[in-house]
C-alpha cells in the first residue's frame, strides 16, 4: 500500500487561491493559522519560542560569516552546524563531521553554487551527492545560506502543503512520500531513491518555493506581520517564515 501524500488535518476554511496574475489569496483562517504558528515557533519542542528563534537568528549570522570567507573549512563548519540544528540522524551527521578534505572542497563548491542565482539546483544536487546530506538537509543549508529566498522542506512541511487545498481543486504541492518503517506508522518525504529524489527536488524548486514565496507576499500585502519572539518585534514574512509556520503547525496538529 502506498503511503498517503496528504491528510485531512486542517480546521474548516483553510484554503489558498491562486490568481491568474500569479498572486495568492489566503483565506482568513489560513492567515490566522500561519501567523499564530509563526509567533509560537518552538523547535526543538520545549526550548521556548524566544530561545528557539534566537538560535535560528544566531545560526543565520554564523552562516553569513562563513559565506563572507567561503573556503573548505568554513563550508564544512557551516554544514556541520546546520546538520546539528536540523536534527540530522546520528549516522548521517557523523559522516558530515568526518568529511575528508576532498569532500570539504566539494561542500565549498556546492555552497558557492547554492548562493549563485540560477545555480541553486546545481548546488542542491552537489550537496546531496555528499555522504550524510539528503534533500531535507540540503534544503536547510539553502535556507540558512539564502534566508530571504530559500526554505527547508521536510516531512512536516511536505505534509502541510500536500494537504493544503487550492480553491478550484487540487493541493498546493505534490511531494512524493514513503513509509518510514515496515509497520507503516509514519510517512516521510521520499528522497532516498533516484526517482523519489528527482521528483521531490523538482517539486521543491518548481512548486514549493514559488508557492511559499507567494504566500509570504500575500501576508506582507495585507499586511499581517508576525511577531518574532527573539526580537519582540513585528516582522515581514519571508518564504522561510512561511515554512517555519507550516512546520510548527503540522508538528503539533498534523498526521505523522
What is the distance, rounded to the nearest whole angstrom, between the alpha carbons of the first and last residues?
17 Å
Biggest sheet details: 3 strands, mixed
The percent of residues in helical segments reads 55-70%
Mean pLDDT: 95
Q: Given the structure, what is the number of helices?
A: 10
Proportion of residues in β-strands = 5-15%
Oligomer: single chain
Work out the radius of gyration.
18 Å
Q: What structural category characterises the helix and strand content?
A: mainly alpha
Shape field: globular
Q: How are the strands of the largest sheet arranged?
A: 2-1-3
Task: Give a nutshell description of this structure.
This protein is mainly α and 256 residues long. 55% of the residues lie in helices and 8% in strands. The protein has helices spanning 28-40, 49-68, 72-86, 90-97, 101-114, 120-128, 135-145, 155-163, 194-221, 239-253, and strands at residues 15-18, 24-26, 165-166, 177-179, 187-189, 226-228, 233-235.
What do these coordinates show?
- With 256 residues, the protein is mainly alpha-helical.
- It contains ten helices and seven strands.
- It has helices at 28-40, 49-68, 72-86, 90-97, 101-114, 120-128, 135-145, 155-163, 194-221, 239-253, and strands at residues 15-18, 24-26, 165-166, 177-179, 187-189, 226-228, 233-235.
- The chain has a three-stranded mixed beta sheet with strand order 2-1-3. Strands 4-5 form a two-stranded antiparallel ribbon. A two-stranded antiparallel ribbon has the order 6-7.
- β4 and β5 form a beta hairpin.
- It is globular and about 50 Å long.
- The mean pLDDT is 95.
Amino acid at each position: 500500500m502506498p503511503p498517503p501524500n496528504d491528510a485531512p488535518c486542517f480546521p474548516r476554511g483553510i484554503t489558498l487561491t491562486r490568481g491568474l496574475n500569479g498572486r495568492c489569496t489566503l483565506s482568513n483562517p489560513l492567515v490566522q493559522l500561519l501567523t499564530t504558528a509563526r509567533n509560537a515557533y518552538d523547535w526543538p519542542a520545549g526550548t521556548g519560542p524566544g530561545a528557539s528563534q534566537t538560535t535560528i537568528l544566531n545560526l543565520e549570522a554564523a552562516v553569513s560569516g562563513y559565506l563572507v570567507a567561503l573556503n573548505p573549512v568554513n563550508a564544512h563548519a557551516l554544514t556541520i552546524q546546520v546538520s546539528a540544528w536540523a536534527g540530522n540522524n546520528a549516522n548521517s551527521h557523523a559522516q558530515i563531521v568526518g568529511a575528508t578534505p576532498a569532500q570539504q572542497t566539494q561542500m565549498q563548491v556546492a555552497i558557492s553554487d547554492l548562493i549563485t542565482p540560477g545555480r541553486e539546483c546545481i548546488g542542491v544536487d552537489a550537496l546531496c551527492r555528499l555522504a550524510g546530506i539528503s534533500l531535507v538537509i540540503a534544503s536547510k543549508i539553502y535556507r540558512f545560506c539564502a534566508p530571504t529566498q530559500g526554505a527547508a522542506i521536510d516531512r512536516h512541511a511536505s505534509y502541510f502543503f500536500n494537504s493544503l487545498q487550492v480553491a478550484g481543486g487540487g493541493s498546493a504541492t505534490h511531494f512524493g512520500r514513503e513509509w518510514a518503517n515496515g509497520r507503516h506508522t509514519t510517512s516521510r518525504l521520499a528522497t532516498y531513491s533516484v526517482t523519489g529524489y528527482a521528483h521531490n527536488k523538482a517539486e521543491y524548486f518548481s512548486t514549493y518555493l514559488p508557492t511559499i514565496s507567494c504566500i509570504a507576499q500575500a501576508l506582507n500585502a495585507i499586511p499581517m506581520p508576525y511577531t518574532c519572539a527573539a526580537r519582540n518585534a513585528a516582522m515581514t514574512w519571508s518564504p522561510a517564515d512561511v515554512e517555519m509556520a507550516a512546520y510548527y503547525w503540522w508538528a503539533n496538529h498534523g498526521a505523522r
